[in-house]
Write a structure and sequence with these properties.
Layout (H helix, E strand, L loop, with lengths): L6 E7 L6 E8 L7 H8 L3 E4 L5 H8 L2 E7 L24 E4 L3 H4 L5 H11 L2 E4 H6 L2 H10 L3
Parallel strand pairs: 1-3, 4-6
Antiparallel strand pairs: 1-2, 4-5
Bound molecules: zinc ion (ZN).
Zinc ion (ZN) binds next to helix 2.
Length: 149
């Protein structure tokens, strides 16, 4: 008889870039689920978010880049306060990192403070696709991709 406890290695995702990292080891303790079923259910699965940015994102943040995420609000899930909790956003593009100095080229002067406050609170800025087109964020992104800095 195999007395070894089935264990599953699970993953957690960086809240900013959604890259996943091996993280928790779950040990089978639920006697109602059979060991193999337990492994199938949890092994290699993403169980949640890291509560800190991954190294790559941390480097970007330290270099004064701000994470901006373009979403489809219709497909995102809002909470009771009509806000989208991190992880419930439907992303249209991979996260883009906008240099803090470039904010003034993208956002109108009078909303920059609000933008910075949002980023401070959520770690990143969610912006809907319609608005991001209007302010030229997607054009900016394409340009940066071809010609960084
Ligand atoms: Zn990351």
């Amino acid at each position: 008889m195999n007395k070894e406890l089935p264990i599953a290695l699970t993953k957690q995702a960086c809240q900013i870039c959604w890259k996943t990292f091996d993280r928790d080891i779950l040990i089978h303790q639920n006697l109602l689920i059979d060991g193999e079923q337990f492994k199938k259910q949890f092994h290699g699965k993403v169980t949640g978010f890291l509560d800190y940015p991954c190294d790559e994102c941390k480097t970007k943040l330290n270099e004064k880049y701000l994470p901006v995420i373009i979403i489809d609000p219709e497909k995102s899930t809002v909470n009771l306060n009509n806000r989208i909790n991190p992880g419930n956003e439907y992303r249209m593009y991979p996260v883009m990192f906008v240099k803090i100095d470039a904010l003034s080229k993208i956002f109108e002067e009078e909303i920059i403070d609000e933008v910075l406050q949002r980023i401070e609170k959520d770690r990143f800025l969610l912006i809907d696709e319609e608005a991001s087109k209007k302010i030229g964020l997607i054009d900016y992104y394409e340009k940066m991709k071809k010609n960084p800095d």
